[in-house]
């Protein structure tokens, strides 16, 4: 009986793992977009993805004083990570940051700067919008989705709206169309959650239909 001399299955090296990715969009489905102001969520996902495939160091500023031997695959892997970024951002952003000689870290910083330029002005505008939201001719679903969307944008810019404030803004914008339910919610001893308020108003809307 002859022994089995086949080599053992060795774990993939980081470079092999990185190149085994078929589609990064399966892991980061939402593209980075200036209109969506979704930098925080995108960057968190991209960061996590790079850590998983052991290429996170490419996002960081190179350390010139490092005593570690040079990585022969560094430039190749760096180019791969740049392509990952290009494939998970909007075409408009690609046009703004694309450069044949740009490293991963440089693209990463460019994107970060693009989303944080005029940050204060964006926060002020969004905060003003959300405070003055009114349901008008919107459906209840569309109204609450619009508020939540602005709330998410503010969170992405590092300006988190408290739950109580968000509910107050929502109620204020309902008074013209749903004065009774707005009054009831205002006078509750314990303020309901945002989702509970939406459900209450949806129920009221269905009664009016």
UniProtKB/TrEMBL annotation:
Protein name: Hybrid signal transduction histidine kinase M
């Amino acid at each position: 009986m002859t022994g089995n001399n086949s080599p053992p299955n060795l774990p993939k090296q980081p470079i092999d793992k990185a190149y085994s990715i078929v589609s990064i969009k399966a892991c980061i489905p939402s593209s980075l977009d200036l209109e969506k102001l979704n930098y925080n969520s995108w960057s968190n996902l991209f960061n996590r993805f790079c850590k998983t495939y052991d290429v996170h160091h490419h996002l960081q500023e190179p350390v010139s004083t490092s005593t570690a031997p040079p990585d022969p695959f560094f430039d190749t892997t760096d180019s791969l990570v740049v392509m990952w970024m290009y494939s998970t951002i909007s075409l408009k952003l690609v046009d703004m940051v694309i450069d044949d000689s740009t490293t991963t870290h440089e693209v990463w910083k460019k994107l970060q700067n693009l989303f944080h330029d005029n940050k204060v002005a964006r926060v002020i505008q969004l905060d003003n919008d959300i405070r003055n939201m009114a349901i008008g001719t919107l459906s209840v679903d569309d109204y609450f989705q619009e508020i939540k969307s602005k709330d998410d944008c503010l969170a992405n810019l590092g300006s988190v709206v408290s739950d109580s404030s968000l509910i107050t803004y929502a109620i204020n914008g309902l008074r013209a169309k749903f004065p009774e339910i707005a009054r009831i919610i205002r006078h509750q001893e314990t303020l309901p959650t945002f989702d509970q308020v939406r459900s209450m108003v949806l129920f009221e809307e269905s009664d009016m239909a």
